[in-house]
Design a protein that fits this description.
Largest sheet: 8 strands, parallel, barrel
Helix content: 40-55%
Bound molecules: flavin mononucleotide
InterPro entries: DMSO2_SphG, Luciferase-like_dom, Luciferase-like_sf, SsuD_RutA_monooxygenase
Low-confidence stretches: none
GO molecular function: monooxygenase activity
Mean pLDDT: 94
Organism: Acinetobacter soli NIPH 2899
Oligomer: single chain
Pfam family, one: Bac_luciferase
Strand order of the largest sheet: 1-2-3-4-7-8-9-12
Protein name: Dimethyl sulfone monooxygenase SfnG
Distance between the termini: 18 Å
Length: about 375
């Protein structure tokens, strides 16, 4: 539904937490240091990636023992890149909307309009407990996030802005300077539950969802876009994928198998227990991890399910199939980030662009 003619976009997960993107003892030539991340960001922007997404974590949940803070880390990466947009994750609760609006407007100003925000709603009760934050029930967390997003957009676009919500109230606030990006800084959100999708169909510019099959993604796209249309709102869709591109399919599958065979069983189970407080606990049971198996959870946002695992040609075809059902962006994770981002840019991306062009020609001549 509503396939965009624009080229599909690519983002990557910034490894600003330790342990890489899979909960496995397999060797990962990925590092959470600033030095590694600068090289990665520069390689990514040189290889066709338009966005980078940093993660917000306060405590270890799945072996990610060390975590750099998302907003400051995003700003530091922006300072070392030229075109990349970096999406900083912010959690309503610890952040208030006026503070976030001001902080991001300043970063926007300092980085020539390249910051974006991912409003996360929380899935890890242990983390909230550890930092002294109350833990509202699932759909209340989204009600709060929705007020947070409405507040941000109001502050970024209007003078003397007032808000009188259940979670936030403020009066006649005028932010100066406003962000450089017009009409405002882009707002992403994560989650798959009913509440997450409904929020996307009302207020978010981008909806990020966990990895899944084309068929399941198509159902989500249809659901969100038909509701958004009724709300006269437009929302773009980003899908998570753990990409394993190798010269042969056998090689790629062997890497997947080794990741799963060497899974850190204890950490995967602990993560699975925590997610049951989040995705599976949403009232309708359709949250992010509601149907995840042990193998799925080894990549903590179900990235294997998207099946971008194989040869460059197989992967390019599957990416274009996702675009065909309405996906605008692939959010990617890799085992050995820098070298695989470069391989992706050299071997997969050109095939994606070729296939997109062929499809456009076919569509025009039809
Ligand atoms: C792509 C993506 C990125 C996310 N990033 C973070 C993050 O950095 N920190 C965090 O605490 N939660 C993050 N989340 C979690 C979501 O905000 C949400 O709390 C979780 O997916 C549960 O959603 P659901 O029950 O509505 O499906 C992310 C989710 C997705 C899909």
């Amino acid at each position: 539904m509503s396939q965009s003619t624009a080229p599909i976009k690519f983002a990557y997960w910034v490894p600003n937490v330790s342990g890489g993107l899979v909960v496995s003892n397999i060797e990962q030539r990925t590092d959470w240091s600033y030095e590694y991340n600068i090289k990665l960001a520069q390689a990514a922007e040189a290889n066709g990636f338009e966005y980078a997404l940093t993660q917000i974590r306060f405590t270890a949940g799945y072996g990610a023992e060390y975590q750099h803070e998302s907003v400051s880390f995003s700003h530091a990466l922006l300072a070392k890149t030229e075109k990349l947009k970096v999406i900083a994750a912010i959690l309503p609760g610890p952040w208030k909307p006026v503070l976030a609006a001001k902080q991001l407007a300043t970063i926007d100003y300092l980085t020539q309009g390249r910051i974006a925000i991912n409003v996360v709603s929380g899935w890890f009760k242990g983390e909230f407990d550890a930092i002294g934050e109350p833990w509202p029930e699932h759909d209340q967390r989204y009600a709060r996030s929705e007020e947070f997003i409405r507040s941000l957009k109001g502050i970024w676009t209007q003078d003397n802005f007032s808000f009188d919500g259940k979670y936030y109230q403020f009066q006649n606030y005028t932010l100066k300077p406003k962000p450089l990006q017009q009409p405002h800084i882009e707002v992403f959100q994560g989650g798959s539950s009913r509440a997450a999708r409904d929020m996307a169909s009302r207020v978010s510019d981008w909806y990020f969802t966990n990895g899944n099959s084309v068929e399941e993604i198509q159902k989500q796209v249809h659901d969100i876009r038909s509701k958004a249309k009724a709300n006269q709102h437009q929302v773009k869709i980003g899908v998570n994928a753990f990409i394993i591109a190798r010269d042969t399919e056998q090689e790629a599958q062997a890497v997947l198998q080794s990741i799963i065979d060497q899974a850190n069983t204890e950490a995967v189970h602990a993560f699975g227990d925590a997610t049951r407080q989040a995705g599976a606990a949403s009232p309708e049971g359709e949250g992010n991890w509601a149907k995840s198996t042990f193998e799925d959870l080894v990549q903590y946002n179900d990235g294997f399910k998207t099946n971008l695992i194989g040869t460059p040609q197989q992967i390019a075809e599957r990416i274009v199939a996702l675009k065909h059902v309405g996906v605008d962006l692939i959010l990617s994770g890799f085992l050995h980030f820098i070298e695989e981002v470069e391989y992706f840019g050299q071997h997969v991306l050109p095939l994606v662009r070729e296939l997109e062009q062929q499809q456009e020609i076919t569509a025009k001549s039809a």
